[in-house]
């Protein structure tokens, strides 16, 4: 038998999650773009390129989208890690995206020399390129 009813535990857990989410400065879901036509129009713009990342921008409301094609990164683990790095760079440079729609796109195949696996050196390069490119204001 429980000392505290299950409903109370669930509501306390939900309250704690909400407090943690507010404190961690996460990106709101409404900030991410989901309209395919809008993303296509942003991708039609000329990107600013680095070795691994292309950044397409369009003046408009705030928002961002990420593209990490399966063709370039075979392993889901690596695709998810790259997307986490992209989200983190957008979150930290949120103030630099004033009135811009941004699409971050991976443009180079990952792990050509390491049988398709993302290695630490490539991860560091991608992270540096993302943070330097977004923080410089494009």
Structural commentary:
This protein has a single domain (29-135), classed as Ribosomal Protein S5, domain 2 (2-Layer Sandwich), CATH 3.30.230. The chain is an alpha+beta fold and 138 residues long. It has a four-stranded mixed sheet, with helices on both faces. The model has no long low-confidence stretch (mean pLDDT 79). The chain is built from four helices and four strands; from the N terminus they run ααβββαβα. The longest helix is centred in the N-terminal third of the chain and has 18 residues, at 6-23. The protein has helices at residues 6-23, 36-43, 76-92, 120-135, and strands at residues 48-49, 53-59, 63-67, 100-106. Helices cover 43% and strands 15% of the residues.
Blueprint of the fold:
Blueprint: H1 6-23, H2 36-43, E1 48-49, E2 53-59, E3 63-67, H3 76-92, E4 100-106, H4 120-135
Parallel strand pairs: 3-4
Antiparallel strand pairs: 1-2, 2-4
Helix pairs in contact: 3-4
Key attributes of the depicted protein:
single chain; 138 residues; alpha+beta; Ribosomal Protein S5, domain 2
Helix fraction?
A: 40-55%
Number of DSSP-assigned strands: 4
Using only C-alpha atoms, the radius of gyration works out to 18 Å
Judging by the overall fold, what is the CATH architecture? 2-Layer Sandwich
Give the helix/strand class: alpha+beta
Strand arrangement in the largest pleated sheet: 1-2-4-3
Question: Any idea of the CATH topology?
Answer: Ribosomal Protein S5, domain 2
How much of the residues is beta strand, in percent?
15-25%
Largest sheet: 4 strands, mixed
What is the count of helical runs? 4
Number of domains: 1
Low-confidence stretches: none
- Output mean pLDDT: 79
Distance between the termini: 59 Å
How does the overall form come out from the CA principal axes?
A: globular
Please write the string of helix (H) and strand (E) elements.
Answer: HHEEEHEH
């Amino acid at each position: 038998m429980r000392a505290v009813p299950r409903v109370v535990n669930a509501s306390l857990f939900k309250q704690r999650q909400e407090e943690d989410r507010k404190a961690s400065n996460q990106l709101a879901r409404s900030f991410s773009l989901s309209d395919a036509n809008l993303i296509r129009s942003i991708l039609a713009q000329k990107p600013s390129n680095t070795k691994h990342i292309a950044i397409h921008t369009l003046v408009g409301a705030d928002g961002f989208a990420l593209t990490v094609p399966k063709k370039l990164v075979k392993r889901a683990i690596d695709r998810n890690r790259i997307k986490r790095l992209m989200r983190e760079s957008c979150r930290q440079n949120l103030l630099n995206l004033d009135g811009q729609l941004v699409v971050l796109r991976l443009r180079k195949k990952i792990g050509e020399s390491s049988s398709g696996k993302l290695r630490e050196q490539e991860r560091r390069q991608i992270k540096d390129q993302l943070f330097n490119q977004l923080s410089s204001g494009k």
